[in-house]
């Protein structure tokens, strides 16, 4: 099954007196991987929640495969910064929650996806004994066990250490290439955005102010000069050139690459 197509037009969302999203227009191709970046509070997570149907727009429309989204989006699955596993359910049962009860292959599909994410030997363990990275693997498995057409990732790797984070990025990319779903990733990590995305969107003042294709071959070579340059350019756009000079940004970028 191919990924879903999204056509977002004139999207607005306000909380109280604060306008979070202001006439956002965005088109996402089927199977595309889009990263959404920007400063805290710019509306990144709100945009994902609107697409998932967890929030209702004040104005504008979200068209998915030709149909306007109304209520919960049945094509979408969402992964958050915390794993949100149920502590009273074992890993297998937590992942199986992602499959409809009327699916006769629930157990088979659950076993398969646990194998894909490297957790087959942990299926009868309690979530509390898993490491942070393993819990996020279980959360990813739960999101993908129903083979969704749209995966929404709301900073799911933000709390992980640098090495585990890179492993999870590689796993997400591998499963995306295999399954062909559309993916939208919210992240504060510019390296993560460049490593995973076909295109990076910058939200600023409630609007899309940058729409940058990432044309690097996969898998992305983090040590390459072009990779570092793209990371630096994104940092400059997010932080504004008058706040942070290009020399400072290059130092931040190269330092982050060395640490990882």
From TrEMBL:
GO molecular function: ATP binding; ATP hydrolysis activity
One family name in Pfam for this protein: ABC_tran
Keyword Translocase: yes
CDD domains named among the record's database cross-references: ABC_NrtD_SsuB_transporters (cd03293)
Gene3D superfamilies the UniProt entry points to: P-loop containing nucleotide triphosphate hydrolases
Keywords: ATP-binding, Cell membrane, Membrane, Nucleotide-binding, Translocase, Transport
Domain of life: Bacteria
Protein name from the UniProt record: ATP-binding cassette domain-containing protein
């Amino acid at each position: 099954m191919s990924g879903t197509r999204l056509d977002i037009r004139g999207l607005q969302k306000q909380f109280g007196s604060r306008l979070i999203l202001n006439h956002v227009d965005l088109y996402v191709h089927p199977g595309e991987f889009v990263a959404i970046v920007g400063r805290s509070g710019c509306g990144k997570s709100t945009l994902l929640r609107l697409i998932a149907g967890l929030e209702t727009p004040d104005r504008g429309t979200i068209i998915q495969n030709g149909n306007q989204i109304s209520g919960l989006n049945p094509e979408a699955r969402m992964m958050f910064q915390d794993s949100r596993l149920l502590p009273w359910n074992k890993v297998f049962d937590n992942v199986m929650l992602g499959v409809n009860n009327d699916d006769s292959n629930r157990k088979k599909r659950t076993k398969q996806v646990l194998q894909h994410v490297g957790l087959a030997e942990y299926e009868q363990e309690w979530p509390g004994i898993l490491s942070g990275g393993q819990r996020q693997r279980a959360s990813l498995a739960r999101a993908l066990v129903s083979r969704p057409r749209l995966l929404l990732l709301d900073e799911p790797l933000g709390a992980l250490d640098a090495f585990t984070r890179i492993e999870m990025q590689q796993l997400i990319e591998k499963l995306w290439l295999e399954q062909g779903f559309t993916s939208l990733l919210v992240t504060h990590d510019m390296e993560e955005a460049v490593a995973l995305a076909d295109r990076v969107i910058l939200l600023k003042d409630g609007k899309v102010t940058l729409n940058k294709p990432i044309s690097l071959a996969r898998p992305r070579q983090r040590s390459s000069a072009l990779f570092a340059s793209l990371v630096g350019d994104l940092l400059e756009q997010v932080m504004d050139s008058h706040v942070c000079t290009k020399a400072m940004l290059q130092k931040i970028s190269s330092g982050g690459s060395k640490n990882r």
